[in-house]
Design goal:
heterodimer, A: about 500 residues, 20 helices, about 75% helix, B: about 130 residues, mainly alpha, Helix Hairpins
Chain lengths: ~500, ~130
């Protein structure tokens, strides 16, 4: 199993560099099949990972780490429960997005130059998730980020360029913060290996340099995850990209490069006992939850509305993880366990329904060319499959019972009550209603109503796009109803990996 | 005196970082914003190099190159920490590619709008 881990980065990276060359030699012939093959292989590989041992560690270049955490020299790739969950989400969402692209991108030119950065982005995200080394995380973060800048500006219209520039500047500031934090941590501990840093910090006194580094990480990864004081770039950047890329950006990039790394660092590296960290997470989460949802209600641009809702839903996840950290520090293990489980479940659910909704918006834009909800109407009549999938996604994101969004929101609210935050629970429920209201508005304007004159000739989107949307719709239903089946495979190990806390070091070094 | 001597480079780094942030926050010209981003990158790189620097008893640090004449212990005693230097090399390459991409975007924006002035480019809502 150890030899498989590098493949998660190697396959998309190789595909990413082969594609432009192929595109130069045989334009428009082999790009999509190569991409589909690479992503399909990733899905198979990430499913295979569930058969292995609980924690798989690969030391790159044969620089084997010793059982003694003080003498590590090599760079490690670590795959534990949390990594497995995120890897699977990345592969599944990328598969749907690539499948969708095969038809959607027909309306663009130079499509092979589009698939290249897309593969690089997947390679970067997989690298971030698998890396067991702080500086490696930074490098892969930048690989994914640079690819995403190029994809946001892919349309090279003035708005897309502007959004991409704004995203570039804010993301570059985030990278500066993160690298500064890495430097401080290295100065403090003399190592970059996450597990070893964790082991060294566990035994040391709390000190101010570490707090500064944590603050820099919170700001840096908060920017990457678009938490509220740092959210300004997301509503511009995510809608400007082509729809499948929006789905990947909102569905997985902000999770892999923001929430995942934040959770890993807070729980497994610095530990939840650092004074103010859980409180800051709770505050950032609640703010994002409320502000994102309120800004969302005022939007008429379909994709922009979805982007604001991403901010709000990341707020749910960060809030849940923050409360989990607080309860863990207080020794309330049962409550912490429930709320962290709920947070990770919501993370997985959001990846599925948000990418589904972005693909649906792409399907609408593909046929009508419009993003303004007031100008589009009666889609459900002209495009029945797209309409049905949009309905599934809307009900799911609004938290209507048979779908997955309901179960994770319910668990979060129960967890908040149990953890002694009734006020936050009320806020979470209210915001859930705001989301439901907004998405009823979406259905009312986009799906219902009389078909306008100019859209009377609009027909259903091509088959690959429909397959991608139907696939995600089925997942929306399945992830909710089959929760008793998949929780022990997917979610419980992921929660345990975070819950393990500073024991992460022992599990990596096999002690 | 010794304290100031020791802390001065770090203060300089933080100052450089702050100047970069100031440029990004306040300046309205795309090129000046790009310069601000470069300042942030360079401040962090400088900080990383400083982290790796250490003053041995001999008072002089050597470049971290292992030769045959040098035993491991001697190397450890007299050379600076090589890891941050490797990190800085990587960070510089990443910074370069980010800045290159930013310049491309700025040029394309200039083609569209005929100006680098941000106040006249704003098309997107807040």
């Amino acid at each position: 199993m150890e030899n498989v881990l590098p493949l998660f980065v190697v396959i998309p990276l190789a595909a990413g560099f082969v594609l432009p060359v192929v595109g130069l030699l045989k334009p428009g012939r082999f790009c999509a099949p190569i991409c589909l093959g690479a992503v399909g292989a990733l899905v198979v590989l990430s499913c295979m990972m569930f058969a292995g041992e609980p924690v798989v560690v690969t030391w790159m270049g044969g620089w084997v780490g010793q059982a003694d955490p003080s003498s590590v020299t090599g760079i490690a790739m670590v795959c534990d429960g949390l990594t497995r969950l995120i890897l699977l989400i990345i592969s599944v969402v990328s598969l749907a997005a690539v499948l969708f692209s095969t038809s959607y991108m027909r309306s663009y030119t130079k499509v092979c130059l589009y698939y290249g950065p897309m593969m690089l982005m997947i390679a970067g995200m997989n690298g971030v998730v698998l890396s067991g080394d702080l500086f490696n995380i930074y490098v892969f973060l930048e690989v994914a980020a640079i690819a995403s800048y190029a994809l946001v500006g892919f349309g090279v219209e003035s708005e897309e360029l502007e959004a991409s520039f704004k995203y570039l500047v804010l993301s570059a500031i985030a990278s500066g913060f993160i690298l500064l934090g890495v430097a401080i941590v290295y100065n403090l501990t003399g190592t970059l290996n996450l597990a070893q840093i964790g082991a060294l910090i566990e035994g040391s006194e709390p000190n101010k340099a570490l707090l500064l580094a944590i603050g820099l990480f919170l700001a840096g990864f908060g920017l990457k995850a678009a938490m509220v004081p740092f959210h300004a770039w997301l509503p511009d950047a995510h809608p400007s990209a082509p729809a499948p890329v929006s789905a990947m950006l909102s569905g997985i990039l902000i999770k892999a490069s923001g929430v995942y790394v934040l959770a890993r660092i807070v729980f497994n590296v610095v530990g939840v006992h650092q004074s103010a960290v859980p409180a800051v997470l709770i505050m950032m989460g609640t703010l994002s939850l409320v502000v994102g949802a309120l800004l969302m209600t005022a939007q008429w641009d379909f994709k922009r509305l979805l982007a604001y809702s991403s901010i709000s839903h990341m707020g749910y996840v960060i809030l849940a993880l923050g409360v989990g950290a607080e309860q863990m520090a207080a020794g309330q293990h049962a409550a912490a366990s429930l709320i962290m489980f709920a947070g990770l479940f919501h993370l997985a659910n959001h990846a599925v329904f948000k990418s589904l909704l972005f693909l649906c918006s792409g399907s609408v834009v593909h046929r009508t060319g419009l993003r303004d909800m007031r100008a589009v109407a009666g889609i459900a009549r002209r495009m029945p499959v797209t309409g049905f999938c949009t309905r599934v996604g809307s009900l799911s994101i609004g938290g209507v019972p048979p779908f997955n969004g309901f179960f994770s929101k319910l668990l979060i609210v129960i967890g908040l009550c149990w953890a002694g935050h009734p006020f936050l629970a009320v806020v979470a429920v209210l915001i859930s209603f705001v989301t439901l209201y907004t998405f009823i508005k979406v259905q009312r304007y986009v799906l219902e109503g009389d078909v306008p004159q100019e859209f009377s000739a609009v027909t259903e989107s091509p088959l690959p796009m429909l397959v991608a949307m139907a696939f995600l719709s089925v997942l929306c239903l399945g992830m909710g109803l089959l929760l008793p089946l998949h929780r022990f495979v997917l979610l419980e190990p992921a929660k345990d990996a975070l819950f393990n806390g500073l024991g992460y070091a022992r599990s990596v070094f096999g002690g | 005196m010794g304290m100031i001597h020791e802390f001065f480079p770090y203060v300089l780094c933080v100052l450089l970082f702050a100047v970069g942030l100031y440029a990004i926050a306040v300046k309205k010209n795309l090129i000046k914003i790009i310069i601000g981003v470069m300042l942030i990158h360079n401040a962090t790189s400088l900080f990383l190099v400083l982290v790796g620097y250490r003053m041995p008893e001999t008072g002089e640090s050597a470049a971290p190159i292992i030769t045959r004449a040098l035993s491991g212990e001697e190397f450890f005693r007299q050379s600076v920490d090589p890891v941050p230097q490797a990190l800085v090399l990587t960070a510089i390459v990443i910074g370069l590619s980010v800045v290159a991409l930013m310049v491309v975007m700025a040029v394309r924006l200039h083609e569209k709008y005929g100006t680098f002035d941000l106040t006249r480019i704003r098309k997107l809502r807040g």
